[in-house]
Every structure is written in structure tokens, then in C-alpha cells.
Amino acid sequence: MGGVPNQAAALGRGGVVRLVACLLGRRAAGTRGRRLASGSIWLRLLIGAVLVVSATGPLGVAPAGADSLSQTAPLADEEPVVVGGTVAGLHFRQTGGGTGLGYDVRDAFLTALNELGGPAAAGYPVSAPFQGVDGCGYQALQVALLQLCPGLPLQLANTFQILEEAGADGRLEELGIGRGQTDESTSFEEAVRIRLGWLEDAGIKERYLSQCGNGDANAAIQFCGLPMNQPRQFGPFISQRFQRITFQRWVEAVPGMPAPGTITPVLGGDLLKQTGVLAGAVTRPHPLGQPPVATIVEFSRPGSGTGAPDAPGAPGGSTGSTTAPPVLPGLNVIQPAPAAPTAPTVPARAGARTIPLSYGFQGEFFITSRRPEAINLIKNSGFGWAKQQVIWKQYEIGASECGAEGANCLQTSVNGRSKYFRKNQLGFLDAVVDELSASGLRVLVGVVGAPHHYAVPDGHTPADPNMLRDFLQFIATRYRGKVQAIEPWNEQNLAGEWGSSRLWPNAPATPPQGVVDFLALQKAAYGGIKAADPSIIVVLAALTPTGAPPPLAIDDRDYLDYLLQVNGGEVKNYYDVVGVHPSGFNNPPDDFTDVKTVPTNNYKVHPSFYIKRYQQLRDVQLKHGDTKPMWFTEVGWSVTRIPVSGYEYGMDNTEAARGRYFARLLEQVHNEAPYVTNVIIWNLNFRSVVGETDEKFGFGIVNADGNPTSAYACVADFVRGGNRITRPECR
Predict the structure, then answer these.
(1) Start-to-end CA span in the chain (Å)
(2) In whole angstroms, what is the distance from residue 467 CA to residue 163 CA?
(3) Residue 313 and residue 324: Cα distance in Å, rounded?
(4) β-strands 676-682, 630-632 pairing
């Protein structure tokens, strides 16, 4: 939530840029006659700063290791590019998606990468070198686009201007990046004066001047470009767009987001690929020393066909020549490698439902006196699943704690390792599983919270994945035949769950190390569960829907995409269904960033604020050839009478509206999303357990006195009515 996609670390500008040239000319129209939508023609005269910088690099992050990549031994994921017995560059595999392929960076582009501070500051390459229709050579890094025009030094390109001209503003709006404005100037000097006058937000102005220019406006213009618009509020933050960067100042408290007053940067390199503006053969990783032939590439309009595989050497979705253009300095062209086989076609997202849709509730079942009531509520609604969260650290303890527990400690061995458990806690869980199972309900167990002696210092995950394997194997063995599914973790894209220092320590390199580590955890969990009971359904732990930037979180759509890239999609071997956590906030289930039917203003910008986020996650699955079913292991809306910190949107919802929302959600999923095969509502009865100031209270659909709300009545109506809405108040 919040519109900051997975980009590089903050752009803190440490080095002092020595400006060798300014007002570097760029062709006003190029070969396409492009018009500058965001202002006067004078703005087009400003291209970028010459990359002559101090040793620390203008991005302010010192390169890892020695002074520059050219002066250090290549890392395991890097290898010299040797041409004629001479090292001509480096081949980087970090952004190759675990394929063993990568991107060459050579000559002037490698020099520029080093001067920017290396990959630790500027990111790794995400494209091969290519030539634009303007006659300039380009190469995309994760955080920037390098531009080399004939007769000019290598520069930073105006990434956000390119995105605008390519028609990507709709997608940028979803990310909280406003459209460009016209300044009506008649000279470059007037354009500068008008646009600097758009620095109306004091916080963003200070950040722009200090980060991009060390306090000097002219230096800031040269490095980050001129403002493209005036500040504008997008829900919980105010955003202002510049030619090469966007700043967002947070003004509202949102769970998992930066605190109010925090200013976060959005950098443009990866956005070119994420929006499809840069696509085709040049964006696909290639073997060492074998980049695609340098064709003329035109930046594409999003949705112009960039999703289909391209012929070797042809830019996706563009109208480019297939004849190699004249070679520019630093843009080496060598014979391309044989074309890689085309990925198999995956089925469309929609289609006829072939698996009946199941329904369930997550509830509080540990209170013995309320358990029969909760079970009856589930069965009377027509639902068939119950989800119980198991907090691992409440059950397993260390050897020293076992001694203190005395007779309450159960000692056993799992996979040859000694384990210690609290007998009374196991007894409580035994009762819950036994009664849920005996009532005919199917049981989903979600496991979170590693014991302190296993957990990483700043998170709840185990440092050793095998410890989770042992616990899940113990649980699956104990409840064989009574537990039908296990979700072995929860919202691992949050720093608070995974550990902030482990989530993306290698930023801006991809995939994030936290994603790679999670693959090991999921693999261990799957092995333990299946060793105990192969019939148990293993859920790929659901991510939380968030657009928060690192180190707070990784966007759920991006995280899933990264995960499915690691080791060629190895994780697909270790789950049976994909878990997701759609959340409605204060939006109906049919609303989205381009469709808003309620009068509320907040929680409208990022797609994670909408239930339909699950459709985008399905697209990520299909992109990687994954057609396994999807489960909603949590979904719901909050309704509150009083503001709850971080969940104030609950006051925008009413019980009657929530009833209609839930009914329509089930109808939408049943009729339009046949790949979703289980919907677990969060939550059934926590209003009887916690007070109104607890965030869990607002999501409960049964009141503290045991009386159902409209939401309960409407979901029960849909299921008992044969998967259709029959009550008028639920429509």
C-alpha cells in the first residue's frame, strides 16, 4: 500500500557531482516526432548530468568492497567479458532470475556504473545495451537508465519523462506518481523558474535540494531533473514527480508504512520494465558475451503487445528495424546466441470452474466455553473449513526451559534432534483439533512465531529452516487425519515478520536475499509436512498486500514474482496451493484504482487497497507457468465505531455495507475466479475475545454477545442459497 515498488535503496546523495556540462541538447522530436507532454520544448533541452563524480558516487551508497568493479575480483555472480584476450566488461547474473544468464555491461556503461557507486548504489543491469530511435545508445540499470548519444558524454536519461511519453502514466498513477503538467513557458529560463516554483511542499523541496544537489538548485536540476508537476496527495502520502525521480512524503499513519513525515524516493530504472515500456529481446538475460544483436528499440506503450515472446533480436511491442544500426561508441555488437526456446503457453486467468469453491472461517477456538458456539456458527453458515493459528513459541521450548517446566515438559526426538514441548499447551491444541475434526469440519492450521532460541534477532522466523521442518513434522504426525491443510508461515514480505536486516540486505540486487531464504524455509516446511502425512495440503504462505518500500516490506506482487524466479521457479515444487490475503480496506469488491464508487478519499491509490489485488497475483503465477489453485487464507473488511490506530478506515464502513461487500465478494470469486478454490474469512468471533481498540475486533463478523452481523447473514445466505445471493439486503 503506498505506491513504492521494489526499487533500490534510498538515493542519499553522498558524492559531489562536478558539473562539466549543462543544457545538453537532445533532439526535440527524434525520428518519431515525439511531443513533450509535460511542458515546454525548453524542458527537453535538459538531458542529464555528466557522470563525472566523486569516489563515493552520486547515489550516496559506497560500493561494496574496493573502489570500483573494474578494480576488484569478480564475485560469484559476475564474470569478466573477454574480447580478443582483453577484458571488455563484466557479465552480471544477479538479475537473471536464477537462470544462470545475465547481462553484459561494457566500456562506457561499465565506467558509468562504477562512477555511480557500483551495483550497491545504482543496481544491477536489467537490460542489454540497445539503440533508441533517437540514435542514442542505452542500458537500463535497476535504478536508472544510462544514455550515450553521439558526440556527448554518457548521461542519465529522463526516465520519468520517457515513461510519460510512452503512455505509462496510468500505471504510475496506481503507484502514487502523478501526471506531468504544462508550464506554458517560452524559454528555458522561464521553464526553470516556473517549475522550481512548483516546489510547494517544504519537506519534498528540502529533500530534493539536499539529496539531488547538496543544497544547490542548479546541481539538483542537473542530477534529478526539473519538477514535472506540483505536489499532490495520494491517500496517505503527498507525491511530486521529477524527470528522474519521484518523492513521496507520508502524511498519514498506515500499518506497515513509513511514519508520517518520512520522505521516500521512487527510482525509475525498474519501472521501465515493470510497465512494459522497455520490453523484448533486450530485456531478457543472455549468456556471457552473447547479448542480442543491437536493433533499434522504441519505447513501447504499456499493453502494446509486450507480453508475448519476441522473435530473436526484435524489441517487444515496438516498431523497430531488424537491421543492426551503426555501432555507437561503447555499444558493442556481437553475434547473438541461438534463440532460447519459447516458454509454454499458460491458460487464461478466467474459465469454467472445475473445482467447487470451499468456504471457511478463521476463529478463536481455544476458549473451551465458546468452542461449541463457534463450531455451530460455522456449520450453520454452510461453511466447511476452520482455520486455527498456532504460535510455535507457545509450544516448543529449549532444554533449559524444559527443566524449569518439570512434569509439564514433553521430551521427544524429531529427525534425530531432541525437542521439548509444553504438555499443557499441546493439550489445548489437542482439544481444538479433536473437536473441530469430530464436528465434520476440515482444519487449516497456520504456523507463526519461532521460539526465541531459534528466531533471528529482529524477526520471528527461524534462522535454521530445519527447525520449522521438525515442528511441522511433529504437528502433522500428531494430528494425522484431523488436519487437512497447513500454512507454514505468514506475511513473510513484512520486515516485522521476517526481520528487517534479512528482508533485503542485498538491495538493490534482485532477487532479495529474504526471498531466497524463504524458499529454503518453504522447502523445509513442505518436506516435514509431507514426511508425516502426504495427504495434507501445503499452502504457500500468504503475503500481506502492501506497497511499502524496503526495509519495511516488499510489495506482495513483486515478492511473489521474485520468488517464482529463484532457481527457475524451484519453489513450485514445495506447495500445493498459493495463499493470498486480499483486503478491502474501505473499498467494495468491484472497485479498483480506476473504478471508485464510494465517497471516501483515503486508501485509493495502490492496488493492494482493493480486494481485486488477488487477480494481479494470479497474473504473476501465470507469468511463471504456475496454474496451481489459489486460497484466500484471510480476507475481510473492518467495521469500527472508534478509530483504531492504523485501521481508521474501519470507521468508513458500516455493517450493512460490509454484508453487501462479502456477498458480492463470494459471488465474484465463485463466478469469475475458478482458480480460487477456498475462501477463509477473517474473522469469525474475535469480538468475544478482544476489545474494540484491538485491530482484530473490527474484522469480527459475530458480535461479542454471540449475535451475527449482516456480514455473517449475507455469506451464509450465499452458501446456503447454492452459491447465489437471495436476500435483497445482501445485494
Answers:
(1) 28
(2) 46
(3) 9
(4) parallel
Most confident region among 138-152, 258-272, 428-442 by mean pLDDT: 428-442
CB 490 within 8 A of CB 547: no
Domains of the chain, start order = 41-297 (no CATH), 358-730 (3.20.20.80)
C-beta separation of 103 from 273 below 8 A? no
- For residue 553, the number of C-alpha atoms closer than 13 Å in the C-beta half-sphere is 26
Distance CA 267, CA 271 (A): 8
For residue 602, is the peptide bond before it cis, meaning its omega torsion is within 30 degrees of 0? no
Burial of 558 (0-12, 13-18, 19+ CB in 10 A): buried
Question: 466 with 409: CB under 8 angstroms?
Answer: no
| Residue 427 DSSP symbol | H
Structure confidence at residue 36 as a pLDDT band (50, 70, 90): very low
- The helix/strand/coil state of 270 is helix
Decide: 172 and 3 in contact? Cβ < 8 Å: no
**Average pLDDT of every residue of the chain:** 82
399-452 pLDDT, tens digit each: 999 999 999 999 999 999 999 999 999 999 999 999 999 999 999 999 999 999
Q: Nearest-CA neighbor of 675 among 358, 345, 354, 361?
A: 354
**How large is the C-alpha radius of gyration of the chain?**
27
In this structure, the chain runs to a length of 731
Name, in order, each residue with C-beta under 8 angstroms of 45's C-beta and a sequence gap of 6 or more: 23, 24, 25, 26, 188
594-606: average pLDDT: 91
Are 39 and 103 in contact by the 8 Å Cβ rule? The answer is no
Compute the distance between CA of residue 534 and CA of residue 410 in angstroms, rounded to an integer: 26
Residue 146 class from Cβ within 10 Å (0-12 exposed, 13-18 middle, 19+ buried)? buried
| Of 497, 474, 498, 472, the residue nearest 486 (C-alpha) | 472
Residue 254's SS3 state is: coil
Backbone phi, then psi, for 79, in 5-degree steps?
-150, 140
Rounded distance, CA 679 to CA 654, Å? 22
Of 226, 299, 229, the C-alpha closest to 43 is: 226
Query: Confidence class of residue 123 from pLDDT cuts 50, 70 and 90?
Result: confident
Q: What is the pLDDT of residue 213?
A: 86
Q: Cβ-count burial of 151 within 10 angstroms (0-12 exposed, 13-18 middle, 19+ buried)?
A: exposed
Written as nine digits, the cell of 680 is 477463509
Region 540-545: what's the mean pLDDT? 96
Q: How far apart are CA 169 and CA 171, in angstroms?
A: 5
Cβ(100)–Cβ(79) below 8 Å: no
Statement: residue 641 has pLDDT above 90: yes
Please compute the mean of the pLDDT values over residues 599-621 and round it to a whole number: 94
CA distances from 565 to 150, 218, 299, 309, 332 (A): 37, 42, 25, 17, 29
- pLDDT of 556 > 90? The answer is yes
pLDDT at 151: 64
Tell me the CA distances in angstroms from 468 to 419, 433, 463, 642, one per residue in order.
Answer: 12, 20, 10, 39
CB 20 within 8 A of CB 52: yes
CA distance 464 to 517: 10
- What distance separates the 2 farthest-apart alpha carbons in the chain? 86
User: Half-sphere exposure of 423 toward its Cβ, with a 13 Å CA cutoff?
Assistant: 9
DSSP 255: T
- pLDDT reading at 92 higher than 50: yes
Residue carrying C-alpha cell 511441522? 472
Q: For position 548, what pLDDT does the model report?
A: 75
Task: Supply the pLDDT for residue 59.
Answer: 33
